[in-house]
């Protein structure tokens, strides 16, 4: 049997190049080698205040973005979390074997909770639902960015706890491992925090070249380069150089290094070269997205077919779990 992978993405905003380089590009490659489950995790997106019609629109747009970026429904199963009810069913079960202290020490929780007046239990329990997302498919690998590594550690704790209590030999749930890309953490346009939908420091993968340029032009570079004639150090350039490494051919990256160190290029020249390479990679994605946007019913059908496929595996896992836990199944198997 082909090993399984699972990964999810929130529909809380546009698909940006941080998501693309940190996770989605890897999904597109790995879908050829693994039985792949990719999920738009809309239940995760409702842990903070939101507008229902807006969420629905973003969920659809996220699916469009993923398909346009190369997720191929004939290879991978792409679906919406809310269309596979086993995710929340398993999450409840996992809540009963997750120590509170493990949840309270999650860095992402502490950061998000600090920004909110009233913290809902869903925010704290987020990694439990995430463990359910992954373990429902008995996934061994999870292609994600670096920010998700701590959550995955918790998924392993949950798998271990459940196995120890209900299925020690042989252990039923695998302990899922992260699969990182070279570009595991993309910094946002502010040059400080990670690129993230919630921080407004992103470049969307469907953005028009003009709009990308408006964002690249003012981006901070090596502070030593006040004038075009000042020599710079690419490794001190927080945004532009790492993006060159991600989007530009190797020869261009070398050119950037030399021309920056010898002040042969100004930062604007360097940014123009980067723009060309970003646009080269994103143009076919934008064109595919336009096509998909003109046929929303087709995207909806693709997602529903994905959910039906996902449920075959998810319901099998839930059946096994409930049997082991002494929880009777309904006569229709649910
Ligand atoms: P966001 O942080 O923008 O809300 P998600 O939490 O939905 O994004 O993450 C979706 C995927 O993209 C995850 O695998 C995450 O690790 C990855 N990811 C998000 N932001 C970045 C980034 N700046 N660099 C690398 N990977 C990222």
Task: Explain this structure.
With 334 residues, the chain is mainly alpha-helical. The protein is built from twelve helices and five strands. Strands 1-2-3 form a three-stranded parallel β-sheet. Strands 4-5 form a two-stranded parallel ribbon. Strand 4 (141-143), helix 7 and strand 5 (177-179) form a beta-alpha-beta unit. Helix 3 crosses helix 6 (121-135) and helix 9 crosses helix 11 (267-293). The protein is elongated, with a radius of gyration of 22 Å. The relative contact order is 0.14. It binds adenosine-5'-diphosphate. Adenosine-5'-diphosphate (ADP) binds next to helix 1. Adenosine-5'-diphosphate is lined by residues 9-10, 12, 18-19, 22-23, 144-145, 147-148, 184-186, 194-198.
| CATH top level label of the largest domain | Alpha Beta
Q: How far is it from the N-terminal to the C-terminal residue, by CA?
A: 25 Å
Q: Numbering strands along the chain, what is their spatial order in the largest sheet?
A: 1-2-3
List low-confidence stretches: none
Structural class: mainly alpha
Quaternary state, please? single chain
Mean pLDDT value: 95
Instruction: Give the count of helical stretches.
Output: 12
Primary descriptors:
about 5% strand; binds adenosine-5'-diphosphate; 5 strands; mainly alpha; Tyrosyl-Transfer RNA Synthetase; about 325 residues
Helix/strand layout:
Elements: E1 4-9, H1 17-30, E2 35-40, H2 52-69, E3 77-80, H3 86-95, H4 100-104, H5 107-114, H6 121-135, E4 141-143, H7 149-166, E5 177-179, H8 209-216, H9 240-247, H10 250-261, H11 267-293, H12 296-325
Parallel strand pairs: 1-2, 2-3, 4-5
Helix pairs in contact: 2-11, 3-6, 3-12, 6-7, 8-11, 9-11
């Amino acid at each position: 049997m082909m090993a399984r992978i699972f990964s999810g993405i929130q529909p809380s905003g546009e698909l940006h190049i941080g998501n693309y380089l940190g996770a989605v590009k890897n999904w597109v490659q790995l879908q050829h080698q693994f039985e792949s489950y990719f999920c738009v995790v809309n239940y995760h997106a409702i842990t903070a205040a939101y507008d229902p019609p807006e969420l629905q629109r973003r969920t659809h747009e996220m699916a469009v973005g993923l398909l346009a970026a190369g997720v191929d429904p004939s290879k991978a199963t792409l679906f919406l979390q809310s269309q596979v009810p086993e995710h929340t069913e398993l999450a409840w079960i996992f809540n009963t074997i997750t120590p509170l202290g493990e949840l309270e020490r999650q860095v992402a929780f502490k950061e998000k909770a600090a920004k909110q007046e009233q913290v809902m239990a869903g925010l704290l329990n987020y990694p439990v639902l995430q463990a359910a997302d992954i373990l429902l498919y008995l996934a061994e690998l999870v292609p994600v960015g670096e920010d998700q590594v701590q959550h995955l550690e918790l998924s392993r704790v949950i798998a271990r706890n459940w196995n120890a209590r209900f299925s020690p030999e042989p252990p039923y749930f695998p302990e899922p491992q992260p699969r990182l890309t070279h570009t595991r953490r993309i910094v946002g346009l502010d040059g400080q925090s990670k690129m993230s939908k919630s921080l407004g420091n992103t470049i969307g993968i469907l953005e028009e070249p003009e709009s990308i340029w408006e964002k690249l032009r003012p981006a901070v570079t090596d502070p030593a380069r006040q004038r075009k004639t000042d020599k710079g150090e690419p490794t001190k350039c927080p945004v532009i150089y790492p993006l060159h490494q991600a989007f530009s051919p190797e020869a261009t990256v070398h050119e950037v290094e030399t021309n920056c160190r010898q002040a042969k290029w100004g930062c604007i020249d360097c940014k123009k070269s980067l723009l060309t390479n970003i646009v080269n990679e994103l143009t076919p994605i934008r064109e595919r997205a336009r096509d998909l946007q003109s046929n929303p019913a087709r995207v909806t059908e693709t997602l529903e077919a994905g959910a039906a496929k996902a449920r075959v595996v998810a319901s099998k896992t839930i059946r096994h779990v409930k049997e082991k836990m002494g929880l009777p199944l309904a006569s229709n198997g649910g």
